[in-house]
Amino acid sequence: MKPFLLSFAMAAGLSACAAPDRPVLSAPAMSLPDDFAAAYRPPAGEGKLWWKGFNDPELNRLVERALAQNLGIAGSRERLRSALALLDAERSDRRPQVDGFGEAGIDAGLGDGGSDLRATAGLLGSFNPDINGRLSAEIERQLSLTRGAAYQIADARRLVAASVALAYIELKRSEERLDLLAQSSDLQERTLNIVTLRYEAGLSANLDVRRAAADLARTQAQRGLIELSRADALNSLSVLVGQPASDPSLLPDDGGGIPQFAGGPPRGVPADLARRRPDLLVAETELAAAAAAIGIERADLYPSLVIPGQIGLDALGPLDILSSVLGTLTAALDIPIFDGGRRRAEVRSAEALAEASLYDYRQTLLQILAEVETSLVAIQSYKDRLDALADAIDQSEVAYNQSNALYREGLTSLFEVLDVQRQLISSRQDYVDAQAQLASAIVRMYSAVGAPTDVPRDEGLPNAAEVPMQ
Known about the structure:
Elements: H1 2-15, H2 57-69, H3 71-92, E1 97-108, E2 115-127, H4 134-200, H5 206-220, H6 223-240, H7 273-276, H8 278-299, E3 304-316, E4 324-329, E5 332-334, H9 342-408, H10 414-448
Antiparallel strand pairs: 1-2, 2-3, 3-4, 3-5
């Protein structure tokens, strides 16, 4: 027993060597402006869910359905479950490990020596006191990755809500373009009828009939492309809600147009992004995981200690229930001495990867700031464009009515009528497109600032702040 005590005391003395300090990297402090450069601020709304600011029940229904049924969100939840299980596995390494063993056999003698039945059973145990801090660093790394998996769920919800709104807006834009196509075709058919009557009366040339018919055909040729856009939007919605496109419940039944934004939650300021954008929070957890990885590699520069033990029962023959009890307890100390520089090279590699994660975080933050600024400028630009297009439509309608009346009296050419008619149709089409672009820009703005999606309690899964530390 004394040799064991001596070897264990030596191991304990060596374990007193200071464990490596684990680096702690946090989100870097960046100089952010006090406010965004673009002046647009959304009008205040009653709720905190931004899509309800469009006051469209069908949009609300589709977003809520997608948040509940989207397969990508479901996959993110399972990845969090996997990360939580791995976190439990890492923490288990800090606890004693015990396994059982058993063996039975017959010792056959030569001649008349007979044979004996031998049986052995026992327990094997081990404990790692983590004197170099490697296990603690591995737990910290997995803890950061687990929090990142929780933030991934929030980011998936952010993207799904925005994608549903954008697809819904495109669906409504396509439907309005189809309605406008019917109106434009009716307008051009009336012009063609007038020209045809004048041609039959000998007041117009056949060339005028051809021109009017060509304009009508050109307008009707847009139908296929618009229907394609509508089908694409509908198929996108089907994927987002996790249902086949043939599902009739996907089709909005309200007959409404492009949703108009009435008001919603505030856009916030640049400093809010670090708290609200889930993908930025994911980048922060990746930075923390990279810091923990440095600690893992540095731990290998220091001694490690494992304390294995064994206790067993040995029996001879069926009547010899307990022949002997054997037990051992040792201490295995691994001291790094020379490895050709491999361990220190692995430390340098981990440090470089942590620096890369730091740059990735800063890059992500700058990209998010750019997204927000672009969306804010886009909102104001499309609002101004809508005002100008509304005036253009008013002027074009007056000009068309005047030119059409003059043409009936033979005081102007068909060329003037068709030109004004094209301007009117084009302005109406541009107005519909600008309405959709404005609504889409508002969606992108709320997605860019990380507006909340009201995450529910999800089947017992914790959010990132609730991931257990111990």
